Amino acid sequence: AIKQNAKQRTQRSSHERKSRTMFSRKRNVVDILESMGPNTSGTDAKNILVRVDFNVPMNDDLEITDDSRIRGALPTLQAILESSHNAVVMSHMGRPKLVQKGEDEGGKQRAKLTLSNVVDRLQTLAKAPVAFVNECQGDKVTSAVAGLDKKGGQILLLENLRFTKQEEKNDPDFAKGLAGLADAYINDAFGTCHRAHASVSGVPSFMDAKLCGVGKLVQSELNYLDFTQLGEKDVVAAIIGGSKVSTKLPVIKGLLNSVDTLVLGGGLAFTFIKAMGVNVGSSLLEESMIDTARELIEEAKKNGKKLVVPVDAVCSASFPSGPMDIKDTKTFDIAPG
């Protein structure tokens, strides 16, 4: 997350213009739609494959408790629909290992992680008809895509990509099959851009590079990241979390070169706290990265950068599965200091 002060926010529009130039190699949905042209005849709608992140939380009644990820994809989907083209939407949800292994007794995991659970909410938010196909590959999917209206303005949602092992294995045949469903490809799943999965890194290799790009959500994140590189700033702070220092190391190093303050949270913070000489007990820790963390701390000090780690925490012998009901517990004042 990147935070800017009021002065920086007034500079945002000019920065966005510059970032568009700097990231011109990242074609976005607007560029793709412009190159394809609008469906003015009403008989030549193109099908655009859109990778989104609809991995939304749900309660035990399979009701969505937070639809922010669906809302995040709306600007991209609406741009496609307003150009009278169709969006073939694909996403993952959860980690359906039992489904992949064929060990899902009674179909309980499938019922919990099927993307059919998001159809109603997507249709309500997008204000457009949403069709759903309970597979993500094969004849049924091909037929569903072929049946999309040539007038455009429709959304077709495919089943959970991770119901098949081929997605996470970046299987080339699976990626080629997905690519064959559409005329263009848009990646608007910022949270999964780092995944070497078929729908993320595989599909573009089977499509015309000029018709592959990022969605508005991903473009906005690129703009924010580029903002830290421009040098026109007063104070910029970045917040980064996660469990492992090793997987975030390039990002941490890059941010330390670009921001004034770097705030560390999540499990990776404990490795830095340990490197500072503080006992972290049995908390999540990467012993092999302690020396690296210590070097980063020294580097930050040397360059006048502020590296912030948590100063207190909730301690427990186990990780609770959810919040406790206040009627069964006591509450106390916040910790001193």
TrEMBL record:
Binding-site positions, ATP: 248
Pathway: Carbohydrate degradation; glycolysis; pyruvate from D-glyceraldehyde 3-phosphate: step 2/5
EC number: 2.7.2.3
Binding-site residues for (2R)-3-phosphoglycerate, renumbered to this chain: 69, 162, 195
Record SUPFAM superfamilies: Phosphoglycerate kinase
Segments of skewed composition (Basic residues): 9-25
The keyword tRNA processing appears for this protein: no
Pfam families recorded: PGK
Catalytic activity, as annotated: (2R)-3-phosphoglycerate + ATP = (2R)-3-phospho-glyceroyl phosphate + ADP
One annotated GO molecular function: ATP binding
Cofactor: Mg(2+)
Gene Ontology biological process terms in this record: gluconeogenesis; glycolytic process
Signal sequence region: none
GO terms for cellular component: cytosol
Listed InterPro entries: Phosphoglycerate_kinase, Phosphoglycerate_kinase_N, Phosphoglycerate_kinase_sf
Residue segments, region Disordered: 1-25
Enzyme class of the recorded protein, top EC level: transferase
Residue numbers binding substrate: 53-55, 92-95
Keywords: ATP-binding, Kinase, Magnesium, Nucleotide-binding, Transferase
Record's subunit section: Monomer.
Protein's recorded name: Phosphoglycerate kinase
Source organism of the structure: Craspedostauros australis
